[in-house]
Amino acid sequence: MNIEHMRAFLEVTATGSFQLAADKLHVTQSTISARIKALEDRLNRPLFVRKRNGAELTAGGHHFHRHALTAVRAWERARQEIALPEDLKAIVNLGVQLNHWDRIAAPWLGWMQAHAPDIATQILSEYSEPLMHRLRDGLLDLAILYDPQQRAELTIEPYLTEKLILISTSPRVVESGRVTGYVFVDWGDTFRAQHSLAFPETPAPKLSVGLGAVGLEHILKHGGSGYFLEETVAPLIAQGRLHRVANAPEFERPTYLVYQSDPIDADLQETALAGLKNIAGIVEESA
User: What pLDDT score does 47 carry?
Assistant: First the structure.
């Protein structure tokens, strides 16, 4: 059975639309339709009920969904593992929310090297939505992210709660409206909503960045202010290079650990999870 046909099936299931599935997979809608038709012919039963506003799984489609997920994940795992050198026995794929390389990814790599030296590691740093997409497709084994989406095949656990504080290169109190030198760092959907509620009269920022490190480097070099992880900027505050903005609201951002509920290699997943939970414990103790 063709893997690309099953990818098409999973994408239509996730989006509820042949057209959206085509957009996600960068093919035409007719290609998606042909792939689904080929699956239905092979299985000798319909997988979707086509409606004017989308597509819904039939009973047969619901039964096939779990098997399609398993097949696609097994294929991706096999494709990666056959390329490994002989001294490595498996590979684990971790997704990490942007802005969390220093805090999570780098320590986890060190932990894996010390405790599982025969396991290859691959890390993708992205926003929550692309990470969820790759988890769903079996391209990631586990991920740390801000905004998880409930899915039957995935387990979601609270991970770390972070504090974002407003800092400035010069002492000042919080202001409304446009502030010269303010850099908007995009910490995800929830932060954008919190920020809008806290600063309702603030116009669109002149400078927006997706990476905290980029925003921090900019204000240290050119002056300015912005919201950053308290843990990241605390040493700079202690050195007097940065200052907390007086009376500014603080925002808490929970992160979540998301992983496959039915992994192909349960022992491998347990090892990777142990490393991430060890790092969380160290971070909480140092907070």
Answer: 96
